[in-house]
Design brief:
0% strand; globular; mainly alpha
């Protein structure tokens, strides 16, 4: 079987993630608020998606993200305990 495994992301994804991490680190160092940083990154990501995939694909990506929020998966990934709800 060829292609990357589920455990090893493609090299360009790892590289892009590292660049985004550095950009976030820089913005935090510039005393830009977390909400502003996250909103700008989300807006940029949505703009890039709009140039790359259909609206239906974007909607599915957002539905998956919303499901992760509702399930508490994002909090678990960040090391925070799930909020009671």
């Amino acid at each position: 079987m060829s292609g990357p495994s589920a455990e090893a992301p493609p090299a360009d994804l790892s590289h892009a993630g590292a660049v985004v991490d550095k950009a976030i680190e820089y913005m935090v160092g510039q005393n830009i608020g977390s909400l502003a940083i996250a909103s700008a990154l989300l807006g940029g990501a949505l703009g890039l998606l709009a140039r790359s995939v259909s609206e239906d694909a974007i909607a599915q990506i957002l539905q998956n993200a919303l499901a992760s929020v509702r399930s508490g998966e994002l909090r678990q990934m960040s090391g925070q305990p799930p909020k009671a709800g």
